[in-house]
Amino acid sequence: MQIPRQAMLLRIFIGEDDRDNGRPLYESIVLKAREMHLAGATVLRGGMGFGHSSRLHTTKILRLSEDLPLVVEIVDSEDKINAFLPVLETIMSSGLVTLEKVQVLQYGSAAR
User: Which Pfam family, any one, appears in the UniProt record (predicted)?
Assistant: First the structure.
């Protein structure tokens, strides 16, 4: 699989407790991206953050970890990312979705 040098980065900010039909939302997003043959997806967990509600989510010791922030990043061609957006809309009820143009320098192993 190839990604064009000029690609798009889809970044999805959600919470660890967000769900899609009982399944963790981040899992649904990654599995759907894989099903649609996107180049790859990565889920990153944040140690602290807040969103629309301004409620602070943190991993501090004195508080139980509650609904930690997650970021799902997907990089692929603009066409493939644009085809994924309507699907994303059907499984997300809240969160923040951003897009930005990126330059892909390497994808996969270098030819030897």
Answer: DUF190
